[in-house]
Design a protein that fits this description.
mainly alpha, globular
């Protein structure tokens, strides 16, 4: 049984190789901006609620624009959509650089820029995901998506760790993080510009879907009448809403480790390291048959790991707990991506991918807001601990409420395309 990721798509498709390399570099820049925004809001306010509100201002445009964006992806030139979104996202990162460089210390401005970033990212991410099938043969899709998962884990490891180092440098600080992200967009724009002009072109749409609203409704209706997809999305929301306490990281870092930005960077990097190990050795996952049950178990491990993180006081135990959470996260994302791919017909792909993105990213933003609010009302430790335990309870509830998901069995040929729980910025 092969253990390591397959590199065939990188060897055989120059277009995919360029996109993969550019997206990886740009994703690292995006993680640096996410780190910098959270730390800047914390430095200005010293409030976990204020940090948690970053999630709210991210979530609202993500939900409003994200689902509609799926219908746009199914109807428009996907390549052109990606180009427009990338230019807009680059402009937002440039604005973040300027406000930080001049020391404006305006939390409202930060929230506004993050909201704009989220709106364009909620279209850009699923549109980019929709390009890959046009570049590769069907038998290369599993390997391609596994490589994309490695990109996501690289972002989690390198982005926060590098941001912590850059932030601590004299005369560089937070503006340096934002500037690196701005420049990194060149890496993601160039491969898209090199694509053939016919990539992303659409044929005529279903005549019954004459309006954007009817197209969106048709996509949501398809998801609603597919219990396995409902179960997968519920399991993911359960994991991220209760068990993703990223808004508590600055407070817990300040309480336990003196607020060193380098240590804060290691928190998210540890999640990425655990996920990277599972992604690199992801070969056996494609032989997984009982995918619904496997996802529920992995989600429970995720919750238990964050509960352990809540009570860990030593740095090594803190990072170990976060690494276990990251390893479990890769399994949940693999399974969710598999089910979305296998159970979705081509005519709904853009809309279901958009819903998949909204579930993955939106649940995390809600979770960050929830963790910050509970942490403010109680303590950061209680918030993280109770969230982890609720994830386990939620997994049991989903197993009982959606038996079709728990009992779902995949044929051996149904291999997993892997989409990460990203911030949606690329």
């Amino acid at each position: 049984m092969k253990l390591l990721a397959d590199l065939t798509p990188l060897r055989e498709s120059p277009a995919f190789r360029r996109i993969w390399a550019g997206s990886t570099l740009s994703a690292v820049g995006g993680a640096m901006t996410s780190f910098a925004v959270s730390l800047q809001v914390w430095d200005i306010t010293h409030s976990t609620v204020a940090v948690g509100l970053i999630a709210l201002v991210t979530l609202v445009p993500l939900l409003v624009v994200g689902i509609g964006g799926g219908a746009l992806i199914d109807a428009a030139d996907t390549r052109r959509v990606v180009q427009i979104c990338t230019v807009a996202l680059m402009a937002v990162s440039a604005a973040l650089t300027v406000q930080s460089w001049f020391g404006l210390r305006q939390v409202g401005l930060l929230y506004a820029l993050v909201a704009i970033q989220s709106a364009f990212g909620s279209v850009s991410a699923p549109a980019r995901a929709a390009i890959t099938p046009a570049l590769l043969s069907a038998d290369q899709m599993v390997a391609a998506q596994a490589l994309n998962r490695i990109t996501f884990q690289t972002m989690l490891i390198a982005g926060p760790a590098l941001a912590g180092v850059v932030t601590s440098l004299p005369h560089v600080g937070l503006p340096g993080c934002y500037l690196i992200d701005t420049v990194s967009f060149v890496c993601s724009m160039y491969p898209i510009a090199r694509l053939p002009s016919d990539i992303g072109k659409k044929s005529k749409s279903d005549p019954s879907e004459r309006t954007r609203i009817s197209a969106i409704t048709a996509g949501l209706s398809f998801i609603g009448r597919t219990p396995v997809l409902v179960g997968a999305f519920l399991a993911d929301v359960n994991a991220t809403f209760f068990g993703l306490p990223t808004s508590l990281f600055p407070a817990l870092n300040a309480e336990r480790f003196g607020g060193d930005p380098r240590t804060l960077g290691l928190f998210t990097a540890a999640i990425g390291a655990g996920g990277m190990i599972t992604a690199v050795f992801s070969g056996p996952l494609k032989h997984m048959a009982r995918q619904g049950s496997a996802m529920l178990v992995a989600v429970s491990i995720w919750g238990a790991a964050f509960a352990a993180f809540a009570v860990a006081h030593s740095l090594w135990l803190t990072l170990l707990s976060l690494s276990v959470a990251g390893a479990a996260d890769t399994i949940t994302v693999v399974v969710r991506g598999t089910l979305v791919s296998v159970l979705t017909p081509a005519e709904f792909r853009g809309r279901v991918m958009a819903a998949d993105f909204v579930v993955g990213a939106g649940g995390g933003q809600l979770g960050s807001l929830e963790a910050g609010a509970v942490g403010s009302l109680t303590t950061p430790v209680i918030s993280a601990l109770s969230g982890g335990l609720l994830v386990i309870a939620g997994s049991v509830a989903i197993a009982l409420a959606v038996p079709e998901f728990r009992r779902y069995r995949a044929a051996p040929a149904e291999m997993p395309p892997v989409r990460g729980r990203s911030s949606g910025r690329r």
